[in-house]
Amino acid sequence: MNRNQILAGLRERILAFATSRVSRDYAEDLTQETLVVLHEKYPAVTDLTELVPLAFQVLRFKMLDAHRKAFRRGEYNQESVEELPLADPADDPATQLDQQQRVNRLLSAITQLGDRCRELFKWKLEGHSFPEIQKLMGQASINTIYTWDLRCRKQLLSLMGGSWK
User: Fold this and answer.
1) Residue 52, Cα to own-chain centre: how many angstroms?
2) Cβ distance 17 to 56 under 8 Å?
3) Residue 84, SS3?
4) Phi and psi at residue 109, in whole multiples of 5°?
5) Minimal CA–CA distance to 17: which of 75, 74, 59, 66?
6) Cα separation of 35 and 42, whole Å?
7) b/e for 97-125, b at 16 or more Cβ within 10 A?
8) pTM value?
9) Distance of alpha carbon 48 from alpha carbon 37, whole angstroms
10) What SS3 state is found at 47?
11) Rounded distance between C-alpha atoms, residue 81 and residue 43, angstroms
């Protein structure tokens, strides 16, 4: 029996032992790491009576190392991500109600504004700059647009009750 056949038979015994101590996936990893160590560091050991104890000693060292590493990383007391509730991306109902009430107050206040103010706000919301609004409104001075903007914002704020919130 050659060394590869011996290692293949030994693999099953190592895997069974590791599976009794840790999860199946992790046991597969530990078994593979143990076989790599045996293959690379102990190629001269071919006798089964020497190879089996050596393999289990390497496996125990690998398992201890894994436990120390997990403890160091704080993985023992972690909660599973799958068990944690997902965060709702939407706002809570109180925030949604507050926002809806502000929108309703804003819409109500805008309908009470004059035509010039509504047009000015419409163009600002469409992304027009003040020089563009000046041309759209047919005004000679941009300062007139700035003044109208200030007055319209003050009027809107007073119609909303003196606060944006």
Assistant:
1) 46
2) yes
3) coil
4) -70, -40
5) 59
6) 10
7) eeeeeeeebeeebeeebeeebebbbebee
8) 0.44
9) 16
10) coil
11) 42
User: Which tens digits make up the pLDDT trace of 35-87?
Assistant: 899 888 988 887 888 888 999 999 999 999 988 888 888 776 666 777 777 77
Q: Check the CA dihedral 39-40-42-43 and report its sign.
A: positive
47-82 exposure pattern, b = at least 16 Cβ within 10 A, e = fewer: eeeebeebbbebbeebbeeeeeeeeeeeeeeeeeee
Give the type of residue at 108: S
How many angstroms separate the most distant Cα atoms in the chain? 102
Query: 141: which 2 tokens?
Result: 């001075």
Q: Which residue's entry shows tokens 């997990």?
A: 70
- Amino acid identity of 58? V
